[in-house]
Amino acid sequence: MADAKVIPFDEDRPRRRIPGTRRVRAVPAPAPAPEAAVAVAPAGEPTGGAHGAGGAGVGPAGPGRDGGRPAWDRRLAGGLAFLRRRITGEYEVDEFGYDRELTDQVLMSLMRPLFDTYFRVEVRGVENIPAEGGALIVANHSGTLPLDGLMMQVAVHDHHPAQRHLRLLAADLVFMLPVVNELARKAGHTLACSEDAQRLLEAGELVGVMPEGFKGIGKPFGDRYRLQRFGRGGFVSTALRAGTPIVPCSIVGAEEIYPMVGNAKTVARLLGIPYFPITPTFPWLGPLGAVPLPTKWTIQFGEPIATDGYPPEAAEDPMLMFNLTDEVREQIQHTLYKLLVQRRSVFF
Fold it and tell me: If DSSP codes are grouped into helix, strand and coil, which group holds residue 262?
């Protein structure tokens, strides 16, 4: 299979190898087809439907047709063109391994049934996310498995008017797992370190971080919706250096998908993982016990906290970082309690 073309964030920066990615050589992009002959929207642009995923259009030829071509014909042509680009290597990835076309056309399509039908996610406050430029989205973390980060990614892309892409910061463990490592890179995730986060923010990307880490995602069911420690405020320092706003995000519904009633610590140590969850269904029901419960989710994005008014040396001020970290944490916790009071049921 041919290699893909790399798009660096900044030509002037020295490029470094990121763990879990490979170097690829550039392949000349094909000349664009004449406008009249184009039947498929470019990667990343909607082709119709509620989520911009190949729905039928309404044109002069009547509903379901575009320029006289049936919708199924356009979808088939788009699918074949996508496969051709995959085989020939005529697609693009950035230096972190992010494959925008694959994310838009495949990975998002795989996550949408969970988002729309299974968890029935309600999104609020998406207008608080900037339409352009960098921003750091900080959210609570829960659910035993990190499905909340993936659902937040879909929420930003499908509900924001600009259909922005969220680049999640993930733990080392994600990039040590086979298959998961490659998919995470393709979906735009990168290692949770200040250097990578700052480069993404300065490049105008939306970056998502969940400061609770494994302490949040692996906490007992009895501690649900109680935020754990937010680390030492590293995410605040990164936002200050990049001069980008911080957008708090509160997620309700993820805590109950795998009610963690126990932790087999000995098994976890043998497997080299932070925890080994015991739920009412896992491991007792085997693979069936790994199916999440169909809870009803709400994702709310709060008012952004500006950081561009601080001087450059503010990133080194521990008291300022502590205060801003506490402000973000308190806003997320307050919103969680508010959403829980408004919730009618875990499942409806």
Answer: strand
Hey, which residues does 58 pair with through a beta bridge? 63
CA quadruple 149, 155, 160, 162: dihedral, nearest 10: 60
Instruction: For residue 179, give the DSSP letter.
Output: T
Give the helix/strand (H/E) hosting 341: helix 318-342
pTM: 0.78
Determine the Cα–Cα distance for residues 15 and 317; give it in Å rounded to an integer: 30
Q: What is the structure's pLDDT at 38?
A: 34
Peptide bond into 311 cis (omega under 30): no
How does residue 87 score in pLDDT terms, banded at 50, 70 and 90?
confident
pLDDT of residue 33: 43
Q: How far apart (Å, rounded) are the C-alpha atoms in residues 139 and 283? A: 29
- How much is the average pLDDT of 286-291? 93
> From CA 324, how far away is CA 235, in angstroms rounded?
10
Mean pLDDT of the chain: 83
Residues 6 or more apart in contact with residue 76 via CB below 8 angstroms: none
Which has the minimum average pLDDT: 15-29, 200-214, 272-286, 302-316? 15-29
* Amino acid residing at 115: F
3-state helix, strand, coil in the chain (%, to 5): 40, 15, 45
DSSP conformation class of 29: P
DSSP state of 207: E
Cα–Cα distance between 142 and 149 in angstroms, integer? 9
Beta partners for 139? 249
Q: Tokens 């708090």 correspond to what residue?
A: 248
Distance CA(225)–CA(1), nearest Å, equals 46
* Bond from prior residue into 283 cis (ω within 30 degrees of 0): yes
Query: What pLDDT does residue 123 have?
Result: 98
Bridge partners (DSSP) listed for residue 278: 262
Query: What is the full DSSP assignment across 44-79?
Result: TS--STTTTSSPPPEETTEETEETTEEHHHHHHHHH
Amino acid at 265: K
pLDDT tier, 67 (very low <50, low <70, confident <90, very high otherwise): low
